[in-house]
Amino acid sequence: MKHDWPKKIGEILFKRSVLIIYQSIYKNGRAAIFLEEDGLPFATLSVNLPEHPLKEGEFPVKNWFENEEVTPFVLEHTELFEDTGKTVPTGHVQAPIWRFKKEA
Question: Phi/psi at 6 (nearest 5 deg)?
């Protein structure tokens, strides 16, 4: 199935702002998930860690620094993703692995 990237997969109200959730792909074919507010970048939810093997539909999540508040909010308030319970190391932190609940 061919997609036009980026593809809008949802939206969420976060702190009185509507964030649009987009899916795209990194150059290595892995899922890239990012958020926009009023057409401007707000956060990149995914992190590209090609050295870690993943199953189909899985992606590592950036849940540190500026994403610390929005990442758990997106997981809890959308029906798009689920936490696999797995993590992978990246620098001094562990990136949780999420997967799509259904094809985006």
Answer: -75, 160
